Amino acid sequence: MKKDLKYYIETWGCQMNEEDSEKLSGGLKPLGYKRTTSKEDADIIIFNTCCVRENAEQKVEGNLGALKKLKKERPEVVIAITGCMMQQEGMAENIISKFPFVDIILGTHNAYKFTEYLAKALGGERPIVEIWDKEADIIEGAVIDRASTIKGFVTIMYGCNNFCTYCIVPHVRGRERSRKPEEIVKEIQDMVAAGYKEVTLLGQNVNSYGKGLEPQIDFAKLLRKINEIDGLERVRFMTSHPKDLSDDVIKAVAECDKLCESIHLPVQSGSSRILKKMNRHYDREQYLESIRKIKKAIPDVALTTDIIVGFPGETDEDFEDTLSLVKEVEYDSAFTFLYSKRKGTPADLMLDQVSESAKKERFNKLVEAVNEICAKKNKEYDGKVVEVLVEGESKSDETKLTGRTRTGKLVNFTGEKSSIGNLVNVKITKAQSFSLIGEQVQ
Ligand code: 5AD
Ligand code: SF4
């Protein structure tokens, strides 16, 4: 009997990469490949890489090194590396010289061609290295094998035009290209027909969606179109650049019933001086003004953010500005990062790099402040009844179900298994630091 064909895929980095991996899976499924969580019994091993911070790259290299033995024992296994890390100049050559057993290397723009490269590799043509430098046209119609059957990502635009001085993304993902609204709406309608209840719209800067499209459209208008899709229950989006967050978008979130009361607005730093060096095009006051507008227009909104600690030239005072901003905004949660030098970015060449010890000390202080606020915000849910989209059984406690509120809070609760995939009301009985506990109510 023919053995089942299996593939293993590991994804580092952001939601864009997760969606790219779902497209890679979508290409392999019709060929009869099934996903496995064990490298040992895989016929294809794919690493979808990230390069936004150095430690992401180190992890990939560590994992590749560990494949040497496997490839020696089973040379027929196809090893493929894709994603942002490969899109950097000289990286493919570097990988091939360090790990000559890799079979396929491709970039972010041509991952949709993966099955073509696979056919060639299986035909004996190895290694295949194909990184496209130019910004690829948007390819519609790729099959996406989504991780969940209840909620899913929908990319609305690719690339970024902003060139924040620390960031490698515009160098590897190219300039902004927006998908046509009708393609986006159709994709979401198809998802709804397949039973999906929630979508998260993805882009490096969704607020500048629509540039260059005819007829003219902007992000607020797209949100309103999506809000009209019958059967869809919830819409989220990320990431928003504060400089482009328009009043129209805030108004759309306030007025449209499907748009969740949850906004991710990366601040990066609370110091106007550092924000200028980061090339963010807003200062502390302008950011706080946007936050005030959001809070006024959308009561009970959950705010989340990204913060970088230890950007070149950051002094104790600058860092105190970040801490005070965090306390003023009261984020529901925050992704906190140690600044990481990236080759080819302006910040890499700045002479006033912050010492690792100062970075770590500030980082720990920031995490402590963020966690304290997060726990306080969760406490506000104690005793409340909230709407939860039930995603499945809880991983930590089999007797419970798990899902999220419209504000993105994770809730583990006792309830009917039959409600998986539906919206239910849950009474919060205990607020923990990072999640809520509750019981389903009628
Ligand atoms: N070092 C640390 N964090 C970074 N980010 C982007 N580039 C870097 C870097 N060089 C963070 C930003 C961004 C998030 C996705 O990653 O906070 O919003
Ligand atoms: Fe990077 Fe800035 Fe673009 Fe975000 S907006 S991807 S941080 S350059």
UniProtKB/TrEMBL annotation:
Cofactor stoichiometry and binding remark: Binds 2 [4Fe-4S] clusters. One cluster is coordinated with 3 cysteines and an exchangeable S-adenosyl-L-methionine.
Subcellular location: Cytoplasm
Residue intervals of the MTTase N-terminal domain: 5-123
Residue sites binding [4Fe-4S] cluster 1 per the record: C14, C50, C84
Catalytic activity: N(6)-dimethylallyladenosine(37) in tRNA + (sulfur carrier)-SH + AH2 + 2 S-adenosyl-L-methionine = 2-methylsulfanyl-N(6)-dimethylallyladenosine(37) in tRNA + (sulfur carrier)-H + 5'-deoxyadenosine + L-methionine + A + S-adenosyl-L-homocysteine + 2 H(+)
TRAM domain sequence ranges: 379-442
Binding site for [4Fe-4S] cluster 2: C160, C164, C167
Designated name of the protein: tRNA-2-methylthio-N(6)-dimethylallyladenosine synthase
Key words of the record: 4Fe-4S, Cytoplasm, Iron, Iron-sulfur, Metal-binding, S-adenosyl-L-methionine, Transferase, tRNA processing
